[in-house]
């Protein structure tokens, strides 16, 4: 465990807070922190950082990092067989798994970027499960009696980020303008168009199932109110809102949102980018205007808010001083009830100030072929993929 923690990359949020890792016994380690940090286990024990994944020290030291990447060893229900980057991953069942012997003896994960192609592969029996279909592909499959649709997700929240709200010269600096944009959007209609109504409209930046999330209602769809707010802010005929960046590949959602904004007078232009380029520009604080962004990191409400509401957050362009102080206070708080109250206060303030525009908890359709008895979708909530893998079952022949 100590070796794996020290080897983990991308876990600075943890490592900066750890003074020492002490091996207490053959099955115990003790982490010594510089100061109280209530989110240590949320970051360490979930996929928020994946720093808790254990690797075999002797094997890694023997084959090196590159050798381990080519032939990894772990503790899961499946053994690694082969991996062709960008093409497929093949695994076979480990009969001695501690929890349950997997029902499916061989799993092949294929990388297929286009949802239409994924749907076609399912129809042609080239795959048994096709994840993350768009609405047109899902509706077509729904007409096939041999195929079922299943819905999963809810880990990611799609939301509007008003990049220029921290610029006093920008229209987006005015809370009334940001609130108008929120009232301009019909979240239920957006969910119907993009995910067959499966995505859950929300006013919260974190999933409702996360610890410490304050359940907040979605901003109401009210175009008349939106126009009134714009007039009060000095824009009775609307204004040019700049560029709108939909998170790749959700470009159709971006077009729909820009249509809603345009209907109340906020004129924007959709800018599409390839995902890697978008991620670099977003994290580099290079974009202006609005994005329909999404975050899907695991943990709790605090770990989800960390990247957005505090000044040192990966995607934050600014921070309110009182929210910043509250966030630092909750991070050191060891009393769970007090910490929950602080985090609820933060979420309420962010909501009232229309700092963001939460849209919905993103839930998408996947297609299930005729061989599938149990796809193991949403057995872990929220988790978007089949899991636990040992619970996936095919129908008996």
Structure description:
The protein has 397 residues and is α+β, with helices and mostly antiparallel strands. The chain has a domain of 209 residues: Dipeptide-binding Protein, domain 3. The protein contains 14 helices and 14 strands. The strands form four sheets. Strands 6, 7, 8, 9, 10, 11 and 12 form a seven-stranded mixed β-sheet that branches. A three-stranded antiparallel β-sheet has the order 3-4-5, with no helix packed on it. A two-stranded antiparallel ribbon has the order 1-2. Strand 3 and strand 4 form a beta hairpin. The chain starts with a helix and ends with a strand. The model has no long low-confidence stretch (mean pLDDT 95).
Any idea what the CATH superfamily of the domain at 154-362 is called?
A: Dipeptide-binding Protein, Domain 3
Q: For the record, what CATH class of the domain at 154-362 applies?
A: Alpha Beta
CATH architecture of the domain at 154-362: Roll
Radius of gyration: 23 Å
Proportion of residues in helical segments? 25-40%
Instruction: Spell the H/E element sequence.
Output: HHEEHHEEEHEHEHHEHEHEHEHHHEEE
Give the beta-strand count.
14
> pLDDT below 50 for ≥5 consecutive residues: which ranges?
none
Summarize model confidence as the mean pLDDT. Answer: 95
Number of H- or I-type helical stretches: 14
